[in-house]
Each structure stands twice: as structure tokens, then as C-alpha cells.
Amino acid sequence: MYTPNHPRALLGVALLALSAGARAEDETMTVVGKRSQHEEVATATRTNTPAKLVPQAIDSVKASELTAFGQPTLSEALTGIPGVNASGDTRFDSVNIRGFSASNDFYLDGFRDDMQYTRDLGNIERVEVLKGPAAVLYGRGSTGGIINRVSKKPQKGQESSVTALVGSFDTRRVAADLNAEAGERVQLRLNLAQEDKDSFRNDVTSKRTLLAPSANWEISDKLNWLVQYERNAHDRTPDRGIPGVNGRPADVPREYVYSDTRRDFIDDVAQSTRSRLSWDLNDQWQLRQQLGYSTLDSQFDNTYVTSVKGDQVTRARWQQDLKANSLISNTEAEGQLQTGPVEHRLLIGFEQNWQERTPKLYQNASPIPAGNLYDPGSLPTYDGAMKLSSDANHKVRGYGLYLQDQLSLGDWHLVGGLRRDDFTVTSRRHDLNKEETLSVTSLSPRLGLVWNPLEDHAFYTSYSKTFTPVGGELIGITPGDKNNSLDPQNTRLYEGGVKSDWLDGRLATTLSLYRLEMYNKRSKDPLDPTKVTLTGLQRTDGIELSARAQLTDELYLRGGIAIQDAEQVKADADLQGKRPMNVSRQNGQLFAGYENGQHGWFGETGVTAVGDRFADNANTTTFPGYARFDARAGYRWQQWEAQLSAENLTDHDYFVSATSASQILPGTPRQLNLSAAYRF
Fold it and tell me: What's the pTM value of the predicted model, to 2 decimals?
């Protein structure tokens, strides 16, 4: 059952977000040295920079806020961030940022993490969402922005904790965050988690484990070595939701599942090993060497709906055996110098990356008979032969050289950067006995200006650009395809805004206006549909407001809102003028909280609101907007903490995302969770 949009709820978010915010424990120093709720961030510049000096919108959210009411997927956890929409399902994390897909723009501690799996947040300190192109520092992609997860790191004096959670749908999670010091110069940290849960969706289950040890060694006063490892194993039932009928989600109970749950599965093991050496050459310069190696071993068997005619659904069955690995080396030097009255912070870096993806795909050899939409339990099972669809090996080699300069002169702050990328992709289809290699070179600039004429207000404007080469998204090409030789797609961002402190630093706001456009998007040639040309234009114009406030010692607010107009301005005839799928015109959130110091009662409640979206790029199927209310309350005493939380407090029917018009994912009904933590 679908429900209408909630414009009043969205309007309420817009009005109240003017005073929204976060906790005082996140205080940092602004450029003028006074108290502020603007945090110091690293994702935007790869240097520790006050957010007020970043000429681009960036949202930094603690992982504890994202998981405050449960253990959502990363895609679902980010839906309240202005300009971010969920676009995935149980198979892998996927979001849109400012109207463009960011499914391949996930990062972990600054390392590209674009493999397709679901990420656990148990080892994450915070998530930073940088809006707009970031190619000058990170290379290809980042059309709408990037999502960088900042992991927990060993620190001196860090406390340990053990947490247990039980909740609706037989949810059980046990986690530990253990910290120790092996001498004066070595700090150790270990994060563990085990989670088992069912679902409100029939026969959909999930089991995951997390193992994440790390060590920090202060080799000398000038040399530091951080080593981290993470293993994320996730066994689950694939669930793509319910089909659309007559332009709307089918009017069926939200627990109906259209996969073959007696057999369907996804088994993922994702691993990441990261090393960071930091050498202070002197008081002004630091040399860093970062090395990361990640792997994904994934198998799935998935039966899902491909089309609906009347009350009959047609399904397909696919199997995949996938192995992927990635090796990244990044060497950079950061230093400060002065030319006359101008202060410079320079960043020079050289990145090398190697990626390999080996998918082997099978599909049903004969058609699966159609079945009754309104009785998914009776849908026919396919146990027939599976035929090989693709047996491929894709390799990517990339090299990037970049230079960034952050200049300061009085009230003026300039950020300029330029990157050159060399990108090569080689794909071999073993089943076709074909192989092809493509290479491209691209320059990516960024220029931003911040003017801080008043102590509390920093005005900014910026321009940045990125590129998306053929074979550079979900890596790989089809050897022999006549469109392989196309130039990269390019995206540019024009953005301006103001970042402000109010109420003596107790309230921080960021207001941004932007135009983001892919101006040479791939489109079909109207005279020859088999030919692709770079004549398309996709554009998003938008305004965003985010804020965080510590109103009193006990009361805080956090929230924001985005209004965006995303359109395929020039596209194929069936897409012309349409809005991209999974992109709402409005989204936002507002949460208010109470916390009485380190002991006693605490609580938080708020709303996440998302406008109407389309389940397909042709805009044939709409799924409605929603407003979801969450709440939690708890008590701390001595070394203990207990909390009761409720997600979707009003038990509202809503839809999270879609991967096609036949696959629309319902949101979770009211879900209660009880957790207890012991800190030592």
C-alpha cells in the first residue's frame, strides 16, 4: 500500500533546520580560534582543515548517530543527509548524491572502496560526505560526491566497551571495542561484531561478522606507523522488494517476497589491509606513504522479478562467482611556506592503483513460467539448467599526479588544485575469446575561494571538474564494442554559499547553492540507436542547508534540508526531460536530543523526510515520499549504559529505494531495539 507525500513534514524540516546541530563534544577550533560546531575535516582537502575553510559542502556525521536507532545499511543510514538518496537493496550499498549515482564512490580512510558489498559501521568513527566532484584528489568518478568512512584508530587513554543489542525481527548483535597500550609508543585496538537478524520480509535473513584489529607505533618523535585490517563477512538472503503495477508499487502486503528464498543467497567476504607511514621532516613538512590492499569474494544465487503483465510476474535466475582485488599506493608531501604576506599549505601526491575483477555469470537456460503477483508463495521454482552468460577478467591500471595549494591572505583563503590521471582498462571475455585494452588521460581542476570578512561568517565559491572514462565505473568493458573508443564523460560543479557560527558558537550552519552537470553524457544516436554519442546533458540545480547546535549544556539539535531539481536535459527520446531514478526533489532530517553530562538520562527524537521518487529513469513508476519518526531514550550510571530505541515509531508504510520499476524496496515497520553497554 502506498501513501501520499508529506509536504508539511518537509516544510517543518526546512523551518526547523535553521537551528539544527550536534553535540558539544564535537567542538573544534575555527580559523579565528573561537568555539564552533563546525568540525575539522580531512576528506575535502586530504589535510586537516576547518570545515569553514572548505569551499564545498561537506557533511560529517558520527557513526553513532547513523546507528542510533538500529543497524541500517549504509545506504539507508545516509538518507537524511541533504542531497543524498538511497538507491540500493540487500545486495550492496548504493546512493545518489545531488542527482547522480555515487555507487562507485565509496572510500575507506581515503582509499577507494568501490567493490559491491554491504558495509558494517562497527569499526567506523564517522562518515564524511563531500558534495560534488573530487577528482583533483581522488581521480575518476565522484560525479555527485564521495562517501568516506573514517575508521576507529588506536589512541592513548582510549576506553574499551562491550555492547549487546536485541530487537524486533529476532535481531541480535554483540560488539566489542577493545583498546590497549603495549608500552609507551604502541597503541592497539580491536573491534569485533557478530550480528544475526531476520526481517519483516518473509524468510529474509542476515548474518554478519566483523573483525577489525589495528596498531599504531610511534617509532620515533618524528615517525609514526598505523596499520589496520578489516574483515567483513555477510551471508544474507537477496531481496529486491516488490514490483510496480500501473505506475505505483503493487498493493500487496509489505512482507511479500518475490525471490526464491528456499535457495537464494549472497555470501560476501570483504577484506581491507591499510598502512600509513607519517614522517615529520621538520616543523613545516610531512611525508606520508599510504598503502591499501582490499579483496572481495562474493557468490550469489538470485531469482527476481523482471516484468509484470496484469497479475502475472516473470522472473529470472542468475548466479555469480566474483573475485575482486585492489592495490593502492599513495605517496604525498604536505608542507607550509610563506611568500611575502601569503601563507601556503601545499600538498603534492602521486597515486598508483591496480584493480582486478573476475565475474563469472550464469542465467537460467530456459524461461521461468510466470506466476501470480498476489501469491508469491506459489511462484514456480526454477531447477533447470543454468547457462554461462559471461566469463570475464577486467583489469584497471591508474596513475595520478596531483598538486594542491591552500593560500591565506588576511580574510581571503584560496584552494587551487590540478590532477593528471592516466587510466587503462583491459577486459578479456574467456567465453568469447576476445580481449581489448583502452587508455585515456585526463586533467581535473578545482578552484575555490573563501572570504571571511566577519568573524562568524565565511562566504565561499568554487568550481571543480571530474571525468568518467569508459570502463571506469563498475570496471570493465565488452571487448569489440564499437562504443569503447568514446572519450570520458565530464561533470562540472559551480557552487557558492556561506558557513556561519551563531549564538556565540553554539549554532553552526552551512547554506549552499549549486549547479552540477554532466555536459557530455553518453546518449543513443537518434539515427542509429546502436551508436552512442557524447551529446547528453544531465543537470541538477539545488540548495542545501545543514546545521548543528548545542543550545544548552544538555540540549542539542542536528539536521538539514535539500531542495534539488535534477533533470536529463538532453537525452534519449524516452528519457528527455525526465528526473533520474531514486532522486527526490526534497529530503532532510531534524533531530533534537537531551544529554545530562556523562551520567543520568539521555534521549533523542526526530524525523527523516524524503520526497517522491521514480523507480526508473523513464519515470513510468513513482513511489511516494515519506516522513519517518524515530526516538530513543537511555540511562548511564557508573560504567554502564542502557538504551531503548524505536525506528519508525508511528509504523508508517514507506519505500526506501528501487533498482528498477519491478524492484521497489519497502521500509522497515516499527522496530524496537534494547541495548546495553559496559565501558572500562
Answer: 0.92
